[in-house]
Design a protein that fits this description.
By secondary structure, this protein is an alpha+beta fold. The chain is built from 15 helices and 19 strands. One of its GO terms (biological process) is signal transduction.
Length: 517
C-alpha cells in the first residue's frame, strides 16, 4: 500500500511539472489572428450570456463597436500576453469593476515556489503611491538601501515608469465613471502586472529622485535569515486571537481591529481591511458587547483600503449598526434560472476532490436549481440579505462616522451606500472606488478562452443596496470630503480622523455647556 502511494505521489509530481512546462511553452507561442478573433467572439458571447446589467454604463451599440474594432486590429499572430493587452482594455470599457481577464503569466514549479519562499520579495517590501503617471515609495520598513519615503522611481531597468503606468492603467476595470479607484488599485497591482510581463527576476536596477537628487539602486532578491524563517513559522500559528481578528501573515497585520480612542471609552474605533468572512461573527459579537458595556457614544468605522469581500459579513455588521429593522440589499438579479449552475463546480479539483464532488453534485444541483425565482419577467437569486432583518440586541445607538476612500470597493461600497441612504452615519474621506448603486459579483463562472487559454471570471449576480439610487454612475460620495495626501501618509497624519475627533470634541463641549445652564 505504501509503495503504491509513493509511486502515485511521484506520478502526480511529474504530471504537475509537465503541466507547468507545457503551460509556459504555450505562453511563448504566437496564435494565428483568426484563432484570436474566435476568442474575442467567445469572450463577448459568454459575457452577454451571463453578466446581468451589462449595459449599465455603456450602450450595446458602442460595446458591439468596440469588440468589432479590436478584432480589426488583430492582423498578426500574438502570444497570449500580447493578446491580453489588446482585449482587456475593451473589457475594462464595460466599466464593471469585477469583470476582468486574468493576466496570463509564467507559472512556476513547486521547486521554484520553495526557492522563492526562502527569499525576500524584491518590490513587495516597499509601499507605493501613484499620482498621475508617477510612482513613489512611501514605505520602506526594512530600510532597503536606505531609500527614503517620498522617493520617486523614474525608471526600472532603464524603462520609464510612466510607460508602465499608462499601459497598466488601461487594464483596470472600474464601477461606472468612478475616478478615485484606479490610483489605489494600480499601486497595489503595478508589480503584479510587471512580473507577469518580465517574470520572477532576482535583481533590478531602479533610477530614483528625492529632493531633486537622482540616485540609482540595484535591488536584489535577498535570502531570508534563520530569524526571518523562524518568525514566519511562528506567525503561521493560528491562535484564537489571530482567527478572530483575521491575521494576515504576509503583511504581519490584522484585517480587523477594535479599540477605544479615548480614556473614558466614549469613542469606539473599528478598522476592517477586508470582509473576509472568517470568524467575523465572533469578532463583531465580542466587539459590540464591549462597546455596549462601556456605554460608548460614538463609533468610527474605518473601511478605507477595503476592497470588499463577504456579503454575509456586512449583513452581520449592519445588524449592529442599525437600531431599527432593515433590509440590506434589493433582490439580486441573474440572467436565467440556470445561472447558478454555471459556477464551474468541478473547477481546480484534484482526483480526490473530483471524486468527492461527484458524490455531492446531486445535492449541489438540487440546491442551486431551487435558488432562483422569476418575478415580472426577470430572474432573481435567493439571498438572506434581501429579507427584512432585525437589529442585534447589542446594536449601537450612538453617532456613527465612516472613513472611506477610493480603495473602498465592492462590499465596502454596498455597506456605506446603505448607511448613507439610511442617514445612519456621517461619511468622511473621498468617493469610494465601488459604485453607490450596486455592482455585479456574488459568485462567478470561470470561463477559459479556447485558443489563448486566458481565464475570464464573470460575475453572475447583480447586488444592489436597498436604497434610493443616485443614478450618478459613480461611487459613494462622502458627506465630508477630505483627501489624504502622500505627505500625510508618509508623516502619519490623519486628516479625516482628525476632523471626526474635532467634531466629537465640539459636540461634547456644546453638550457640557448646555448642561451647565
Amino acid at each position: 500500500m505504501q509503495k503504491n502511494y509513493f509511486f502515485l505521489l511521484i506520478l502526480l509530481l511529474i504530471t504537475a511539472c509537465g503541466s507547468v512546462r507545457k503551460y509556459n511553452e504555450r505562453q511563448n507561442i504566437c496564435i494565428p489572428p483568426e484563432k484570436l478573433k474566435e476568442d474575442v467572439d467567445f469572450a463577448y458571447a459568454k459575457i452577454k450570456e451571463m453578466h446581468p446589467g451589462l449595459y449599465m454604463y455603456i450602450s450595446k451599440d458602442e460595446l458591439d463597436r468596440k469588440f468589432d474594432s479590436v478584432k480589426n486590429t488583430i492582423n498578426t499572430p500574438l502570444t497570449p500576453l500580447q493578446f491580453y493587452f489588446k482585449l482587456q482594455p475593451v473589457i475594462s470599457d464595460i466599466r464593471e469593476g469585477h469583470l476582468s481577464l486574468r493576466i496570463p503569466s509564467k507559472r512556476i514549479t513547486k521547486r521554484e515556489i520553495k526557492d522563492l519562499e526562502n527569499k525576500k520579495g524584491m518590490f513587495s517590501r516597499f509601499e507605493y503611491y501613484i499620482k498621475d503617471d508617477r510612482l513613489f515609495i512611501i514605505g520602506n520598513k526594512d530600510s532597503i538601501e536606505k531609500i527614503k519615503p517620498g522617493t520617486e522611481i523614474l525608471t526600472i531597468d532603464k524603462t520609464p515608469v510612466s510607460h508602465y503606468i499608462k499601459k497598466y492603467r488601461r487594464l483596470i476595470s472600474t464601477d461606472g465613471f468612478n475616478t478615485t479607484f484606479k490610483p489605489y488599485f494600480l499601486k497595489d497591482l503595478f508589480f503584479n502586472y510587471y512580473v507577469a510581463e518580465k517574470g520572477y527576476e532576482n535583481h533590478a536596477t531602479i533610477e530614483t529622485v528625492f529632493n531633486g537628487e537622482k540616485k540609482t539602486y540595484r535591488l536584489t532578491r535577498e535570502s531570508k535569515s534563520e530569524d526571518d524563517l523562524k518568525k514566519e513559522k511562528e506567525n503561521k500559528k493560528r491562535t484564537e486571537d489571530k482567527k478572530i481578528n483575521d491575521y494576515v501573515a504576509f503583511s504581519d497585520s490584522y484585517n480587523r481591529n477594535f479599540k477605544f480612542l479615548d480614556q473614558d471609552s466614549t469613542i469606539a474605533y473599528i478598522k476592517v481591511k477586508s470582509f473576509s468572512g472568517d470568524y467575523s461573527a465572533k469578532f463583531y459579537k465580542n466587539t459590540f458587547e464591549q462597546i455596549k458595556k462601556a456605554g460608548a457614544s460614538y463609533l468610527i468605522l474605518d473601511v478605507r483600503n477595503n476592497y470588499g469581500g463577504s456579503l454575509e459579513e456586512i449583513h452581520k455588521l449592519y445588524s449592529y449598526l442599525s437600531p431599527e429593522p432593515y433590509v440590506l440589499i434589493k433582490p439580486s438579479q441573474v440572467n436565467s434560472a440556470t445561472t447558478p449552475l454555471k459556477t464551474n463546480y468541478f473547477r481546480k479539483s484534484n482526483a480526490l476532490q473530483y471524486t468527492f464532488k461527484t458524490l455531492t453534485y446531486p445535492a449541489f444541483f438540487f440546491a442551486q436549481t431551487f435558488s432562483t425565482y422569476k418575478k415580472d419577467g426577470k430572474f432573481y437569486y435567493k439571498i438572506k440579505a434581501d429579507k427584512p432583518s432585525k437589529p442585534d440586541k447589542n446594536a449601537f445607538n450612538g453617532r456613527i462616522f465612516v472613513l472611506i476612500n477610493g480603495s473602498s470597493f465592492s462590499a465596502s461600497s454596498i455597506l456605506t451606500a446603505k448607511l448613507k441612504n439610511d442617514k445612519r452615519a456621517v461619511l468622511v474621506g473621498e468617493e469610494t472606488g465601488g459604485a453607490n448603486d450596486g455592482t455585479v459579483a456574488g459568485f462567478y463562472s470561470y470561463q477559459v478562452l479556447p485558443n489563448s487559454k486566458i481565464d475570464l471570471p464573470i460575475g453572475l449576480v447583480l447586488v444592489q443596496p436597498d436604497i434610493s439610487f443616485t443614478q450618478t454612475q459613480k461611487g459613494v460620495v462622502p458627506d465630508i470630503p477630505i483627501k489624504e495626501t502622500m505627505d500625510d501618509i508618509i508623516h502619519n497624519r490623519y486628516p479625516q480622523l482628525e476632523w471626526i475627533m474635532s467634531d466629537i470634541k465640539n459636540e461634547k463641549a456644546k453638550a457640557e455647556k448646555y448642561l451647565m445652564k
